[in-house]
Amino acid sequence: MAENTLVITGLRVTFSGSEEKVVAVDGIDLTVPRGTVVGLVGESGCGKSVTALSVMGLLPPPGCMEEGNLHFGGQDLAALSEKQRRKLRGDRMAMIFQDPMTSLNPVYSVGRQVAEVLRLHHGLDRHQARTRTEELFRQVGIPDPEARYDAYPRQLSGGLRQRVMIAMAMACQPELLIADEPTTALDGTIQAQILRLMDQLCRDHDTAILLITHNMGVVAQLCDLVYVMYAGQIVEAAEVFSLFRTPRHPYTLGLLNAIPSLEREQDRLDTIQGTVPDLSVLPAGCRFCPRCDRAVPVCTQAVPPLIAVEEGHMVRCFRAREEQT
Length: 325
Prior knowledge:
single chain, alpha/beta, 8-stranded mixed sheet, 4-stranded antiparallel sheet, 12 strands, globular
């Protein structure tokens, strides 16, 4: 097995308000081996982005990592000072945020923002940083990189802004790249180009990717391992082929059935009934039980453990060992 770049153990993240405490991430375990793409999948509100921000040390207040361990390249991230975390961010670990328009600074040119990363972490002078930035723009498929260097975010299309974010993230050839919904709001053609670009750049440098998405089609195309997250918990984890061949959790099955298919004749797309529960008012027992059509009485009474149904395939469901129908 490949060396692990990131190991998350027992991560618990809470947000405290004036009257209550909300558990956004509830004791998850997750491993990202070097040189692999690991998908973290689930609907909005399941805790995926909070997990990523915890790794990067960017949890917004009043968020708090109450329990757990975060090991990156053998280092305990929780034991590092904020100054030490800043040295890691953008250098050995980087993140592509969901919306490049709100992540890029509107008052600086995009080239200057990428060059700043190189000057800060690699000590390049202004000319060297510009030359390297233009080279990165060329690598990520930005046309006329010399002119684009001086362009402002508002002057670029969504696809080009996302390529700038990828260039910035890859500038220092990080060991870990966290991509939070990197193709949101992009059309299908640009989405496919961005995914191919991420795969190529990261495999060329043996970089590990943690890809956060709700799109199972993207997972099938890019990922090696998959973790399915629901209401702050991991409910299924497996290699991508195993997950798509034999999904064991009803939530995973619902996500897969929602993928449009040319092989099925259907008037309407399949959906999962209901919504993700309010994390401050979680149902008793299994958190997916109110939306599950396979629930039995025990599902409303106890929290199912995460168990191994076969080697490398973990599921949080009381009925996981039963043969699927």
